[in-house]
Amino acid sequence: MADQPQTIQDLLEGFRSPSPEARPMMRWWWFGPHLRREDLLHDLDAMAAAGIGGVEAAFVYPMSGESDRFLSEQFLEDLRFAAESAAQRNLRFDLTLGSGWPFGGPHIDETTAARRIHWEREEVPPGPGRIVLPTVWPGDELIAGYIGNGTRSEEPESLTLLERDGEALLIPDGTGPRVVRIAVSRLTRQSIKRASSGAEGWALDHLSKDAALRHLAEVAEPLVAAAGPERIGTVFCDSLEVYEADWTPGLVEEFTARRGYDPLPQLWQLAFSKDSGRTFRADYYRTLTELLEENFIAVVGDWARSKGLKFRIQSYGQPPATVSSYRHADAFEGEGWGWDIISACRWASSAGQIYGRQVISSETWTWTHSPSFRSTPLDILAEAQDHLLMGINQFIGHGWPNSPRPAAENGLGRVFYAAGALDDRNAWWDAAPALWATLTRLSWLMRQGERLSQVGIYVPARDIYAHFAEAGRADLYKEARLHIGDELPHAVRTAGPDFDLFDDDAVTLLDPTRFPVVVLPRATDIPEPTRHWLQQVQDAGGTVLDFGGSAGIGTSAKTVEEVVEHLQGPVRIRATSAAARNEAVAVTTREIGSGQDAGPGAGLRVHFVANTSSRYVEPELTLQGAPVLERWDPETGAVVSRHTGQSLKLSLAPYEATILVESSVGTGMDTGADASVTINSTETTSAPTLALDTWQVQFSDESQPRAVELPHRWEDDPQRAFYSGSARYSTSFEVSENQEVILDLGSVEHHRLEDPGAAGLMEASFRAEVQPPVGVVARVYLDGEDLGVLWKPPYTLPLGRLSAGQHELVLVVGNVTSHQLAADEHLGQMVAEAEASFGRRFGIQTLDLALADVSSGLLSVPQLIRR
């Protein structure tokens, strides 16, 4: 990481010309592997030209009837070629240590594959007996048997461990009907999801060091050797999706050594006891977490570091990982949007705060505005801003499909089944440099200094472990969100403060003064070291809130309103409209150094403020920092205006974000703004306007322009129903005297779908819920001069001081590429051929809905605002 800025001038200079390290990256999908080197070079060149900073090579299922094999000599040569070519273009090259997910493949056998506890159930009559358990599946191993009084309809209240005679269970004498439960160690038989040709096989046992070492030797070693360690940024592991994996050979011995007692007499309580066995279940799943950390995350991390590499991981899922499980890796990553919930990104960014990682990445834009090619730059920006609010400052786009070029040879080309296609086939790609530059600027700024979080939310892991049987899954992250709920984090974020999650392992490092407020959400089973730390928090003057009233320490808080009453922070937010409370605006704050121009002991504070909603909002912010506040524009890097005082009213368009920088003197830049006025998105109030209602249009495949009436929606023309591309709109206007003029394409209207699923949106799809005035981007030319591109609210652009007389205005409008996707006759054929040759490895997205709720063209009457 480069040196941190020490003055506000340093900060502004870095903001305007950010380090390339902060550029978004792309998960680069390699299908098959079926590759052409000219296509690899095309992708890398297109990314570099657009301002993308690098790739994460990901190897997935075939998309044609023919393919090379994963780890073949030719594949490894192509991998080396790609890594060398990326380095030549100054692009970062990250490497996924496997094909598909989770880790595994043909090298994993019955000794190293993921295992689960399978339970058999039988009734036995009174009297002694002997049961020999048959092997149903290869690899089955008897763990233990249990017996209790009852029948199929009257479950036993408790079970007793049966004695064994070799592989037989000895049934004691009894007085009535009884139920026998038998625990069998069985392979989960989970196949690698979305595997390349030649990478098929079982998921490895993430609780076994031997399994991890075998995968590193068989897969990771040849991959890294081919790419070259000196050319690799990080090596990567996706989220832990090893379903049902709750057993491993040697677990009884590991549990006994760690917990101090034999687990077998109580093992039945994992599945058949809700009212008792809470302590045992917490101990059991805590043991699984420790084995995951020590035998997988730490093993891969140590291996990577031995080669001079950094290990990046999405450390959540199954087997259960805690927030602190990240500490065994080098780079922390989350995924998914959700600025006001317990998200996977918050899981990762909280770990980063605790364990000192400045850069936190996210798998971003998964399922964005599905199906592929329907995402707009606004969709991408709005979801990225959501991630920034969670402490993310490195975007890993999901993703860029490698596909033969030119695409016209075989239809549109390849798409990944569960992601947007964020590549140069998008008809709006003219706006890509501005989009990626804006995200680079924001990512760089959000790496400076330290993110301030005023609230610590405890993850009561032992309480959550105890309820895994009821949940039916051993996923600590997902169950933590359900346990804590969405109401608490939403109330904290909409009040203005930020929060971090912490767990029992974290308190060994956390200073008791770290959080002014600590919240214990419905916590009962709190280990003694954590209770001691919580007492230290109170002794140091901090507030501990027993949210739910079951922790037995701190101040009781039964409602989120009571929690909010105790909050403090550098920014507080209040709604100024008819709404009773703020529901849409959030802030994340970073404090930077001591700042030579900020006065003794004071620092610079940077506030990223975002409207997360589809409506215009006017929040009022109360700040507690330095007296001078400047507003900086994320798209241009300009200092927009300056304000003095600690109360500030903003006007934010839908999904608009801004930067507020506090210091003692500011940058000294001349903004031309009155320091006493409200800082608004635009200066259009009460200004004279001129409607531009006479236009001509010419599509890229037409030879002559023609008159058109606005609004002009392309999909209403049968000849343009499947058109993805651009159209040139032109008009002329007259200015009577020299004056400043602003172009306004029109308002942004709220547009929420009643049934998102019917329009093709998956559960995790993000979509900006608006109808913009242009579908979807417009490059602006005035009198032949290129003034830039409009692609996000508020869709206004200063045209400068115009001289009196006639002027020509041209808007080149580009739409989305989902029209080509809907009309593509080749994609379905490719999928069918791949399935015929390699089996069903994926299900393609709902292509029949590619045009649902899509509008292209100039959708409003632009106007000129004269001031």
TrEMBL record:
Keyword Hydrolase: yes
Sorted UniProt keywords: Hydrolase
GO molecular function: hydrolase activity
The organism's place on the tree of life at top rank: Bacteria
Stated name of the protein: Glycosyl hydrolase
Native source organism of the sequence: Nesterenkonia rhizosphaerae
